[in-house]
Write a structure and sequence with these properties.
Blueprint (H helix, E strand, L loop, with lengths): L5 E5 L4 H14 L4 E6 L13 E5 L5 H7 L5 E4 L7 H14 L1
Parallel strand pairs: 1-2, 1-4, 2-3
Helix pairs in contact: 2-3
Length: 99
């Protein structure tokens, strides 16, 4: 059996992230391995959906994210509404590139 493509959504606990995960799960649960990256997995009950694995992931934590993103085929970065969001997003994207 072919391995399913891995889609990782980081910043998945916010409204946009949740909507993204729900849409992916409802349409592609059988075709994709969906990973929901959240800062606090204990608060991610709404993301416990078919095809979804909840992963602890801290946006901008480049060194850790390089390992977290290994084997990921597509990454969606849901940017947090914080002042340093550009820097967080860049570090997160760099980690994905190096993974």
């Amino acid at each position: 059996e072919m391995a399913k493509p891995v889609v990782f959504v980081i910043g998945a606990s916010g409204n946009i992230g949740q909507a993204t995960i729900q849409a992916l799960s409802s349409k592609y649960a059988d075709k994709l391995e969906i990973r929901a990256g959240v800062r606090n997995p204990d608060k991610a009950d709404k993301l416990k959906l078919p095809g979804v694995t909840i992963v602890q992931a801290q946006m901008g934590d480049k060194d850790t994210l390089i390992n977290t993103f290994k084997g990921v085929d597509a990454l969606y970065i849901v940017t947090p509404p914080t002042e340093n969001r550009a820097a967080l997003t860049i570090r997160t994207a760099e980690a994905a590139k190096e993974a």
